[in-house]
Amino acid sequence: MGAMTGFFKTRFAWATLTFLLVGGIAAILNFGAVKPEDFPVLSWTGWTIKDFLGSKERANIVFLGSSLMLVPLDGVDADYLNKRIDGSQHHHSVYIEDKIKEKAGLSLKTFTFALPGEMPSDAYLIVNNLLKGKNKPDMIVYGVGPRDFLDNMLPSPAATDPYRYLSRFGKIDHIADRVAPEFFPRLDYELGKLSYFWQNRANISQVADQFATSVVNSAVPLPEDGYPVTFDERRLLMPDFRPCEVPKGAAFFRPTTAAERTNFVDNLAEYKKRYATMKWDTYISQMRFFADALDVAKSQGIKAVVVAMPITDLNRQLLSDLSWDAYRKGVLAMAKRKGATVIDLSESKEFSRSDFGDTVHLHSGGGKKFFDVVVDRLSVNPDFIAAFPSETKIATKPSPASEPSKPASAAPSIAVDAKNGSSGDQKISQRGLPL
Fold first, then answer.
1. CB neighbours (10 Å) of residue 34?
2. Cβ(359)–Cβ(66) under 8 Å?
């Protein structure tokens, strides 16, 4: 008893009690609080969330997946519309909307929630945290590939760029053991539950940064022609500063030609690292998140379509038969078990190396072929037609019309806007994020 009394007489005890008291007051006052969508930096994920939440029209179909879906979606639209597409701002598929209207007689709105590096854990957060209420779609179309479940380079589900943004929109207590399985990430999470300041340190830092920036800008106004360096110059000088940031006009998909379609990028070295061993913890964790995403969609009355994406034989050969079977059979069995419509193109002979821009990403020509196959199969599926409200059905199904004259499709490249002082093309890439 005396030792306990002596403890409360120490400076450490009083400092601890003071810290907890101040933290409690800060929690009551919501000190440093920001809205979930008030992002400090806009990445691919940030732009997509802002566009989704700010849209005045509800999407009937939401596309999910990694860049295996994102690249052909935007590349095909660039060719179809015959204009450059800013990937950070373009979040729907005009081509698929028109194709569904032609094939199925449905007038639908789409939204692209496919993101670079998106894992099933991220897809779960999208479905669980955002696809609800007035934003609830009628259907999700989720394109998956082996990397989504077998990535050796993923430290934990909490390490992705999408997770950092999506986790702001709901509690993660029920999945904490999966998103932070390692000791130090879990310790960080538990400390956040004990301390308001620790849990909200990023938000408090964001508010402080915004205040400091406004003071500095008032004292030293920017020149009329904007920042003294371009975004690309800043990235070159400080590559680790806000590595995932993507400003407007920095990543364009552009119409391509048949000749450019032959520009094949060999990215096998990257995937040798991603497939190096069968990391069962990652596989099991991501398969559970995949199942959870489908369960949440089903509970909310959202029809799910799972598409096993085609990849090249070059990429497939990097995987052991055990890894490939675990991925393919696991995805197909889980999707069917959860009541999803399955389109398995993982071993389809309809696609060859000439349809790809690298060993996994379909270029715009291959992407058009891919989406034609998907829409053709869905348009004759009664469950697909029944998933949408009656007002989406066109009274008289339009006859197929010839497409407007456009450049031949080819591998979608991303050109940096001239106003940013760059030339040539760059890949959609985030530091540490797979494509």
1. 17
2. no
Q: Where are the domains of the chain?
A: 46-194+242-420
The position carrying tokens 């990403």 is: 361
Closest Cα partner for 406 from 364, 344, 346, 360?
Answer: 364
Phi, psi dihedral angles at 265 (to 5 degrees) = -100, 125
166 with 130: CB under 8 angstroms? yes
Residue indicated by tokens 């698929």: 96
Alpha-carbon torsion 400, 406, 409, 415, what sign? negative
C-alpha separations of 79 from 94, 254, 258, 347 in Å: 11, 7, 11, 27
The C-alpha angle 288, 291, 293, rounded to 5 degrees, equals 110
Buried b (16+ CB within 10 A) or exposed e, 361-370: bbbbbbbbbb
361: phi then psi, degrees, rounded to nearest 5: -95, 120
CB 371 within 8 A of CB 95: yes
User: Could you tell me if 163 and 117 are in contact, meaning their C-beta atoms sit under 8 angstroms apart?
Assistant: no
- Residue 319 one-letter amino acid: L
Give the Cα separation of 200 and 206 in Å (integer).
10
Per-residue pLDDT 10s for the chain (435 aa) are: 555 555 556 776 666 666 666 656 755 656 556 677 888 889 999 999 999 999 999 999 999 999 999 999 999 999 999 999 999 999 999 999 999 999 999 999 999 999 999 999 999 999 999 999 999 999 999 999 999 999 999 999 999 999 999 999 988 889 988 987 776 776 766 666 666 666 666 666 666 666 676 777 777 776 666 666 677 777 787 777 777 888 888 889 999 988 888 889 999 999 999 999 999 999 999 999 999 999 999 999 999 999 999 999 999 999 999 999 999 999 999 999 999 999 999 999 999 999 999 999 999 999 999 999 999 999 999 999 999 999 999 865 555 544 444 444 433 343 333 333 333 343 444 333 445
How far apart are the C-alpha atoms of 316 and 310, rounded to whole Å?
10
CATH architecture designation of domain 46-194+242-420: 3-Layer(aba) Sandwich (3.40)
Question: At what angle are helices 280-299 and 321-337 packed, to 10 degrees?
Answer: 20
Phi then psi for residue 186, to 5 deg, are -70, -40
| DSSP designation for 396 | S
Contacts of 352 (CB under 8 A, 6+ apart): none
